[in-house]
């Protein structure tokens, strides 16, 4: 029988960006919060002098153990889903701070178009522009309504940047100035300006200068060491929950953080959440934590898994298009890229930072005319200098041999003579793309795994070809001597890394029939249960999702505080 603990005001499940923000904001308002994290404690000191590419980038030191919990995958409903037993397409963060520890730090706001995508697409192009099985919908909130929360997240994290000339209006400038411009970034800027585009510096959570945030958290500037993605930051320069919001929550004395705590169920009775059931993985003991409010703040797949295993909400049924939990899973289209090889120019590509680069949004959202195109939305085009670490980087032209003397010569020649332009393409949801419980495979505690059904569609293929063509044109303007560009986007491949930008499954909206949570991320079907994270996105935009996750978390925190006082559904 599970050990039952005293009731708390709020229990949060997963202590990454979402959980850290919720804990910080609620404890500052006097609420008692228990934070349950199934991984281990982490701190900046863990990464002192640990620039170990093999350990972190290739052996996934900071990632979840897939032998204990993973997902199953199939491209369509006719296929048998099989477990992902080794990392490929995306990476699950593990431990305190979650994926917020190993992210690169690129911190973009979604465009105003994203939040009203269905309405604006129909207004400009008509209903026939949207394929019959594409399930895009408005988010139930506008950019202008979310903008103050974007501002709050960016000031907490100390985001370094400059205004996006094609983005939504800002209420204030970024708290710190843009990152340094490298020679390759200057080339991209000049080339895109020559092409009449609108380049700007990527907004970065890698601090461009020392900064103290509104909570009094002081951090030092980025050292451009090139160990960001898949690594923790030894300087604390990269904003992550461990060095920003979690210390604020701890300082209040009202945050009870419990690591090694694997939550298996949300407990509920009479339409209200009553707490959670979790296992202490160090002892095997089952523990019940009662709470007045429950907040799920874990990664996309686990938020959905907990709801379905706890029998909360209406599971999505792809055959009828009804139900909401598991609906509108979306990924990211990041294949539309080109690489340029320069015979007479060398670049210090080994140096960099996770969010160091230049970007254009001329082909993102609805910033360009889609009338004669076979897709909607788009993506950013960017040249980034994240650091070409030696093991994982070996760029050679496509016409090079893949072994032998010439292969070795080209490997040495082009390692610092190659520049790439990448596209972060938006991902639209389709009726056939969803998450549900796998009927066969289970995790280490015997609970069903989440099953992902997903593949690229014509929408994705057309978008990828378009952005690859535009990337090639920019490299030509930059003076590349040889260019390799993607020609066709094949089937989705879960074995090859693309991005960790999974979204959807517990989507937000204004209608309980088509969404699982309202715009405070409060469950329509259980008013004292909030589900925070990218699981709330009805589609994935043409950007990295973290800024939007952070903004929605701040809004959810505001809603939870209001609910704690007044109760009821928030409006």
UniProtKB/TrEMBL annotation:
Entry protein name: GMC family oxidoreductase
Family: Belongs to the GMC oxidoreductase family.
Molecular function in Gene Ontology: oxidoreductase activity, acting on CH-OH group of donors
InterPro entries linked: FAD/NAD-bd_sf, GMC_OxRtase_C
PANTHER family: LONG-CHAIN-ALCOHOL OXIDASE
Originating species: Virgibacillus oceani
Pfam family, one: GMC_oxred_C
Top-level lineage group: Bacteria
Lineage of origin: Bacteria, Bacillati, Bacillota, Bacilli, Bacillales
Keywords noted in UniProt: FAD, Flavoprotein, Oxidoreductase
Domain Glucose-methanol-choline oxidoreductase C-terminal: 435-553
């Amino acid at each position: 029988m599970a050990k039952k603990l005293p009731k708390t005001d709020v229990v949060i499940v997963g202590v990454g960006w979402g959980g850290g923000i919720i804990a910080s904001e609620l404890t500052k308002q006097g609420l008692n919060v228990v934070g349950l994290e199934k991984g281990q404690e982490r701190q900046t000191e863990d990464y002192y002098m640990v620039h170990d590419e093999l350990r972190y980038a290739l052996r996934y030191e900071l990632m979840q153990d897939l032998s204990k919990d993973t997902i199953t995958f199939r491209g369509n409903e006719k296929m048998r889903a099989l477990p992902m037993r080794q990392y490929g397409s995306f990476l699950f963060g593990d431990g305190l701070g979650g994926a917020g520890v190993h992210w690169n730090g690129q911190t973009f706001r979604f465009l105003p178009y994203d939040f009203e995508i269905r309405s604006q697409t129909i207004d400009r192009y008509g209903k026939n522009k949207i394929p019959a099985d594409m399930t895009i919908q408005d988010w139930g909130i506008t950019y202008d309504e979310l903008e103050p929360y974007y501002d709050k997240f960016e000031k907490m994290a100390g985001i370094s940047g400059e205004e996006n000339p094609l983005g939504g209006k800002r209420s204030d400038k970024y708290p710190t100035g843009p990152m340094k411009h490298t020679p390759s970034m200057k080339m991209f800027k000049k080339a895109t300006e020559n092409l009449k585009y609108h380049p700007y510096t990527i907004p970065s959570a890698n601090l461009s200068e020392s900064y103290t945030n509104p909570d009094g958290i002081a951090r030092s500037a980025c050292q451009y060491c090139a160990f960001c993605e898949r690594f923790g930051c030894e300087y604390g320069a990269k904003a992550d929950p461990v060095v920003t919001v979690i210390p604020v929550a701890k300082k209040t004395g009202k945050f009870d953080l419990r690591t090694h705590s694997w939550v298996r169920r949300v407990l509920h009775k009479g339409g209200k959440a009553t707490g959670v059931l979790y296992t202490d993985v160090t002892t095997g003991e089952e523990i019940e934590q009662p709470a007045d409010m429950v907040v799920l703040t874990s990664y996309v797949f686990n938020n959905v898994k907990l709801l379905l295993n706890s029998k909360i909400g209406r599971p999505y049924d792809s055959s009828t298009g009804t139900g909401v939990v598991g609906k509108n899973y979306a990924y990211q289209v990041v294949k539309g890229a080109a690489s340029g090889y320069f015979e007479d120019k060398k670049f210090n590509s080994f140096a960099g930072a996770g969010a160091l680069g230049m970007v254009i949004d001329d082909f993102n959202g609805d910033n360009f005319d889609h009338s004669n195109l076979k897709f909607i939305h788009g993506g950013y085009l960017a040249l980034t200098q994240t650091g070409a670490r030696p093991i994982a980087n070996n760029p050679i032209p496509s016409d090079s041999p893949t072994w032998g003397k010439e292969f070795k010569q080209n490997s040495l020649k082009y390692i610092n003579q190659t520049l790439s332009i990448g596209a972060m393409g938006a991902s639209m949801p389709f009726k056939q793309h969803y998450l549900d419980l796998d009927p066969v495979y289970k995790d280490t505690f015997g609970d069903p795994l989440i099953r992902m059904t997903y593949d690229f569609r014509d929408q994705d293929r057309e978008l990828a070809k378009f952005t690859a063509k535009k990337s090639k044109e920019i490299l030509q303007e930059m003076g590349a001597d040889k260019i390799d560009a993607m020609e066709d986007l094949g089937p989705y491949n879960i074995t090859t890394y693309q991005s960790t930008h999974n979204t959807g499954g517990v989507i937000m909206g204004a209608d309980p029939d088509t969404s699982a949570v309202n715009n405070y991320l409060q469950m329509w079907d259980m008013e004292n249960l909030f589900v925070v994270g990218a699981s709330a996105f009805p589609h994935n935009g043409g950007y990295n999702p973290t800024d939007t996750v952070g903004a929605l978390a701040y809004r959810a925190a505001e809603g939870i505080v209001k609910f704690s006082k007044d109760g009821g559904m928030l409006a």
